[in-house]
Fold:
Amino acid sequence: MLIEKNVPLQACNSFHIVAKAQSLARIACAADVQALVANPQWAEVPKFVLGGGSNIVLTGDLKAMVLKVEIKGRRLLQETAQAFIVEAGAGENWHDFVSWMLQQGYYGLENMALIPGTVGAAPVQNVGAYGVELQDRFDSLDAVDLQTGKLFTLNAAQCAFGYRDSVFKHASSKMGLAGRALITQVRFSLPKPWKAVLGYADLARKMAEANVVQPTAPQIYQWICDIRRAKLPDPDQIGNAGSFFKNPTVTPEQCADIIARDPKIVYYHLADGSVKLAAGWLIDACGWKGKSVGNAGVYEKQALVLINRGGATGGEVMTLAKAIQTSVYERFGILLEPEPVVV
Ligand code: EPU
Structure:
């Protein structure tokens, strides 16, 4: 395997921030990782696993060795009375995979169409959209231990999925696997019979417009693509990393206090009794839509998305993010937590 030097990363991160990797290895299979681990100096080499680069903010050149996951392949492993079990390589593009699944008749991922990134990055932050999260369609995954080179398999419980969270986001001191594992394959379980997930207001609107009561999976897929294209910027045209902040969770008392001051706030009750607030609404209410810091800006149609207006640095993106955090904190007493990994 060739280790490339001084590799430009602008095309490898969806924010299109200009930065370089001092060294980069293209990983096409688990054995490529094992070959690297076998090197006696490996333990001293800092590493950074890069998937589609759709959830990172690069604040400078990467000194760590970049392991760019390019593991391909997708296949039906098993069909039972209850489910299709389908496996995909971690380097497959997520949206291409979702589209392929629909074409094959394996339904269940349609609500997650057009999420940027790769299959291998999807479990790391338990991606989700329009009422379906990766964990709802997850079977298991394979990964390589970056210290020992050993292959291991995790089921859903072992991945410890949460809202935009998993074992892969937590440091090893807290029993996590951050920086410790490279995901190679992900297996999905698509329940039979297929059931549409239609709880979201945007989807209800599409159904009413089309006058359809029982939509098919391909119809939902098309609506999701239309909804996302209407309000989220296409990273190929405008650099961005999707939602920049997580939707914060508060107690019912905190929520009641905010409603008393701002009756229009958008919130959802969760099963555990807590309340989730729409971060996009909080940012919008602070007047950030369309604003900029240098070349980094807040998207005009969705305040939760920070964008690169052309030539933005990671520093500008983070200065903007901090200014947003401060103003939301000062007005609502809530500290927004960024979603992307800052490197
Ligand atoms: N809102 C505003 N102003 C804004 C943006 C949003 O008032 O500028 C309000 C909207 O009116 C809406 C509410 O906030 O009532 C929620 O907005 P939306 O339905 O667009 O969803 P979201 O909470 O902003 C989340 C996910 C998205 C996912 C959508 C749909 C997070 C952090 N984001 O966004 O995921 O596509 O729901 O399920 O949970 C991503 O993670 O990158 C992502 C795009």
User: Anything to note?
Assistant: Helices lie at 30-37, 94-104, 156-159, 201-210, 217-231, 252-261, 279-285, 314-332. The radius of gyration is 21 Å. The CA atoms of residues 293 and 320 lie 6 Å apart. The mean pLDDT is 96.
